[in-house]
Amino acid sequence: QVQLVESGGALVQPGGSLRLSCVASGRAVLRAAIRWFRQAPGRQREEISCVSGHDTTYADSVKGRFTISQDRVGYTTYLQMTSLEPEDTATYYCATDLELLCKEDFDFGVGYWGEGTLVIVSS
After folding, report:
1. Which of 53, 81, 97, 111 is the most exposed place for a label (fewest CB within 10 A)?
2. By C-alpha distance, which of 14, 1, 4, 5 is closest to 120?
3. Could you give the C-alpha distances from 34 to 13, 23, 59, 106, in angstroms and in order?
4. Please, are residues 75 and 3 in contact by the beta-carbon 8 Å criterion?
5. CA torsion angle for 100, 93, 69, 15 (degrees, to 10)?
6. Among 94, 92, 79, which residue's Cα sits nearest to residue 33?
7. For the segment 9-45, what is each residue's pLDDT rounded down to a tens digit?
8. Strand partners, 52
9. In whole angstroms, what is the distance from residue 111 CA to residue 91 CA?
10. Number of C-alpha atoms within 13 angstroms, CB side, residue 39?
11. Are the C-beta atoms of 36 and 68 separated by less than 8 Å?
């Protein structure tokens, strides 16, 4: 059984930083690629980052500002967000389809998702 739980969302001022966490349970996730998505009101869900071992990917919208990482064991995935902008306001989700590689397209049909954590960037 795979479960994902996000935390760390908050209200933060523009230019601020925040770190999100995603705790995964289930042995199947140990080697799986973990992805962060976000969804702003009225907009489509957007994949913003992925980690699989030493491989990481970022959407252009967050490249250079966000950093994805995992703990040694691999069950907790972090998203360090810096230089936050109002456009980063969204609910952030972690997800996995249990595939090993970030370069593979995410399979929404089999994906496991957390409940999301809300980030609001506003003064």
Report:
1. 53
2. 14
3. 27, 10, 14, 10
4. no
5. 150
6. 94
7. 999 999 999 999 999 998 888 889 999 999 999 999 9
8. 55
9. 17
10. 13
11. yes
CB 45 within 8 A of CB 38: yes
The structure tokens listed for 23 are 């705790």
pLDDT tens-digit series, residues 36-94: 999 999 999 999 999 998 999 999 999 999 999 998 776 899 999 999 999 999 999 99
Q: How many Å apart are CA 120 and CA 92, to the nearest integer?
A: 10
Dist CA 61 CA 23 (whole Å): 24
54 contact partners, CB below 8 Å, separation of at least 6: none
Residue type, 62: V
Which tokens is 36 given? 């962060």
